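Just curious: can you write whichever protein you like plus the matching structure tokens?

***
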Amino acid sequence: MTPKQHFQYAVAEGVATITLNRPERKNPLTFESYAELRDTFRDLATDTTVKAVVLTGAGGNFCSGGDVFDIIEPLTKMKMPALLAFTRMTGDLVKAMRACPQPVIAAVEGVCAGAGAILAMASDLRYATTETRTAFLFARVGLAGCDMGACAILPRIIGQGRASELLFTGRAMTGDEGFNWGFYNALHPVGDVLAHARGVASKLARGPGFAHGMTKKMLHLEWSMDVDSAIEAEAQAQAVCMATQDFTRAFEAFAAKRAPDFKGD
């Protein structure tokens, strides 16, 4: 994968770490970083060397959202066609995160606001601290809460009523609320979140990569299926997984009383 210009990107032992790296501004996004993130997640869909992804921010904060002067101010001067091109582009970032087969794990400390909250929401697993503050603050800047899929995804994570409150008010969800409501999978001490997220990512990277990708795909597709259709879709998906070498490796390892060495094929 080509070097990144607008954030840090590193791969080690099958885990890609994406670090938003403008700590002096709490890691806001720009037009360019949105697009580069979108393209990065699209490229991950065909990158067989990466088995899991960690998304984090530098300097003790995750992401403060769209940069006020690099994005917000220019948007106030744009006409509708350009505005729609921008909102579709940001939505494409979420689509790319959901479409890439690797589990995406958000390590969230400090501020997680606006588009930053969306990036956390679009991840598959999320870890934070009691000090983390997560705000879908679009209403506070005169915008609707329906941004980048928030009205579709957030209620499925925390419930319709809680999502409605956050999207209407723009108030910050505390770390404890995020954990108790199911937005965060676990809370860890300040400074420990990234290490824990990487540990989870490493464990997933050693697992059956093709099967993990299938799990992620079905979790996404089954939102719009009735139960009977979902059961049939899962039957087909699982049959495909049973034809993989990883399934055979798992059986052989079990029979030999050893840990399986998954290859993702």
About this structure: The mean pLDDT is 96. The longest helix spans residues 80-99. The domain at 8-205 is CATH 3.90.226.10 (2-enoyl-CoA Hydratase; Chain A, domain 1). The chain has two domains: 8-205, 209-255.
